[in-house]
Design brief:
Elements lengths: L11 H10 L4 H12 L7 E5 L4 E3 L5 E3 L3 E5 L6 E3 L1 H8 L1 H13 L8
Helix pairs in contact: 1-2
Length: 112
Amino acid sequence: MATTTTPKIASKDDVLAKLATGEIDVDTAKTLLEAFNGPNNGQIGVKVRAIGEKYTDSKGSQHEGKGNVLVYGLQRMPVSLYPGQWQRLLDDETRDKILSAIEANRDKLSWK
C-alpha cells in the first residue's frame, strides 16, 4: 500500500487554513479537528475503517482502511481491533474474566 503524505498540520489553525485554501476537504478537516480535540468529553465513539476506505490521520497522512473497528474516547489514541478480536474480547466469558481481575485488584490499579 502506498502512503501519500500531505504537509504536516501542527494546530487547529493549520487545519482551518488548509481548508480555506482548498488543500484539504471538509471531511479531512473534521477528522483532523477531532484528533486535536481529543476524547469526546468522555463519550465513547466508534468508527469502522472499511477495507480499502481512504482516510487521513491526525498528522495529515493518507491511509487505506484495513477492515478494523476503532473506539475513541478511552484514551488519547483510539483502540483499534479487527471484528473477530472485538468479539473475543467482548464475549461473556472474557468480559467476566476482565471484570473479575479488575475487581480483585481494584486497590492496585490506576483509575483515570
